[in-house]
Amino acid sequence: MFKRRLAAVAVGALLASSLVACGDSGSSGDDAKTLTYWASNQSTSLEKDAEILKPELAKFEKQTGIKVKLEVVPWSDLLNRLLAAATSGQGPDVVNIGNTWSASLQATDAFVQFDDKTLDKIGGKSRFVPAALAAAGAEGKPPTAVPIYSLAYALYYNKKMFAAAGIQNPPTTWEELVADGKKLTKDGKWGLAIEGAHTSENSHHAFAFSEQYGGQWFDASGKPTFATKENATAIKRYIDFIGTDKITNPGNAEYAQNQSVADFASGKAGMLLWQAVGSQLELRKMNPDDWGVAPVPFLQSPPANGKKVNSMVAGINIAIFKHSKNQEGALNFVKFMTSDEEQTILNKTYGSLPSITTVGKDPAFAKPEQKTIQDTLATSAAPLPQVASESQFETLVGGLMKDLFAEAAKGKSPSVDEIQDKLKTAQDQVK
Amino acid sequence: MTTTVSAPDEAPPAPAEKPPKRRRRPTLPYLLLIPAIVLELAVHVIPMLTGIWMSLRELTQFHIRDWSGAPFIGLDNYKVSLDFNSATGKELLHSFWITVAYTALVVALCWAIGLMAAVLLQRPFRGRAILRTLFLTPYALPVYAAVITWSFLLQRDTGALNHVLVDQLHLVNDRPFWLIGGNSFYSLVLTMVWKQWPFAFLCLMAGLQSVPQDLYEAAYMDGAGFWRRLRAVTLPMLRPVNQVLLLVLFLWTFNDFNTPYVLFGKSAPDQADLISIHIYESSFVTWNFGLGSAMSVCLLVFLSIVSGLYLFFTRKARADA
């Protein structure tokens, strides 16, 4: 008897581990008078986001009589919850998605397509900034979402520290950035803060650097081309800020929760590569006069096939689930969220840029930070490859960079060949 | 678990003579079993069968919405998982060996610490109750809260561990990393042992209660010292407890998901890439649920074989003894 109980315990423990079941999901509005909306976390906390969005949703209810049930979802849970909702056919009507996931999510066929007819109902295709709309689905297919907040990477620098080190202008090339970084690195302060254990951010930098070195992560048919010399060199450039140049605190290798923003705000590091971090710096009590914004640097002498790209087209999209029983209302809600008024209000609050062409002239978007982001988006940003396995690129390449940073932090600078080997292993795992 | 619920003994034991004509068994016990069976099906059997079914399909993001219609690909997922020349197979094998080392270390340490604590706390002394409560604290804490606290303690620049090691004791000059790189493996072992050993302690303490005192007295009279008594009396008497304890510790540790997930997040360092996290990544992060299911089934088969062999040999050993 005892043995049998033991066996049962054993089997129970085994089975629990083999569960491949999906999580819980919210319930969708059953009638034409309600909608459920999952908003992504844009502000400093989930509560703060709810506080920002609630009055706008009340406005929508007043206009249309449709009540919107709001849930703000943290980034770490969002993709899993979207997948669960897609699998079960149950969940919210309208959701926010990170634009880099667009093509991956598009492949699930769980979202309403924004073909020309659908786009016409929310003001037409020409209403949206082309680069932002390009990052909303695979090329040649109707987008799976429409953009609502646009972002790009910029170089943030501490003006006081620059002045103290005798640096006149922010760097425009990586070589200058390293030289400046060395001048700033002293007395426990460092040149550049990095979020080394943050896999998605790592992959964003891998993308932009690779473009400058003339590399690419996927070929035209969507097959991964990770293991190239260009990609390995690009990753090495980024890792070397810790490994060889020593302008980044080795401790940054374990940062994954925006500690690099905190380091920059408190003056522990003189430079930071980030997307629209101004409102966060304000919340961290950094004096607005102390920091400046410049475009992300380029290579001094790029190879012949190098591209003038210094940021991904970053941003947040809004999508409608096909399973929604209130398609009409959901589309109305998307129209509302992309209206001139809401785009101005929300993007002003979040420090991001509108993704529609009609409100860019508002003075709120002409501040130096927003201006830099706008210029980057208009001239030197490119969307991450819109292929179905993009989310695998983020995890696998971002993850191996985390391991490389860990090595670099111990003083071992990886060679291009070593990186290429690791990229090969990652590439072979992409399905 | 529920499968072991036995029907109540049949009413008044019949006299030892010729058994009477077989009576109809009462239906009530079976009715009472139904909820348990339904739950067992819902919680264990059906998901397991679904998992096996999924492992035979190409269940990627292209088919996830209509997942029951995912194309059947036979054993392809298994071939990919177990082809140790391919990247996927190599990585799976890599995390398998890490998990083996992790499990061996954690189980051995939990058992040894648990045994020592149980033996030392056997005799009454002042403060015993307090110590006992203190020892059980890690077991009573919610896993998430406990592990997240460890992740704070183990931070390189702001964590308490480095503060003590580097700033106060000056044992090492260079601040070591605990959550990335090679040390992450030991951080994982440390956290898991801290969390798990009280369970061993609890079981062994209960086991020790049943050891008759006169055995110790006799051993003492024979002049046996502490180690001798431990070896000759305590360990043999604890054998039944140990058999179960080691198996349960092994299974829990091998399957452990919470500790690495909370400590490292979605992407564990290469040196601490436990198999449960690896399977999670294969299915949820790279969106290949078929492959993930195939790996889960392989793990299930492996653990079943190990547990089966373990039960067979321990039973044999007991029968031989």
TrEMBL record, chain A:
Region spans: Disordered: 411-431
Ranges that cross the membrane: none
CDD domains, per database record: PBP2_TMBP_like
Key words of the record: Signal
Signal peptide: 1-21
Biased composition (Basic and acidic residues): 419-431
Superkingdom of origin organism: Bacteria
Name of the protein described by the UniProt record: Sugar ABC transporter substrate-binding protein
Organism from which the protein derives: Cryptosporangium phraense
Source species taxonomy: Bacteria, Bacillati, Actinomycetota, Actinomycetes, Cryptosporangiales
TrEMBL record, chain B:
PROSITE patterns referenced in this protein's UniProt entry, alphabetically: ABC_TM1
Highest taxon, organism lineage: Bacteria
Segments forming domain ABC transmembrane type-1: 96-310
GO cellular component entries: plasma membrane
GO biological process, one term: transmembrane transport
Keyword ATP-binding assigned: no
Annotated localization: Cell membrane
Gene3D superfamilies assigned to the protein according to its UniProt record, in alphabetical order: MetI-like (1.10.3720.10)
Keywords assigned by UniProt, alphabetized: Cell membrane, Membrane, Transmembrane, Transmembrane helix, Transport
Membrane topology: Multi-pass membrane protein
Disordered as annotated region, ranges: 1-23
Transmembrane parts of this sequence: 30-53, 96-121, 133-155, 175-194, 237-254, 289-313
Family, similarity comment: Belongs to the binding-protein-dependent transport system permease family.
The protein, known as: Sugar ABC transporter permease
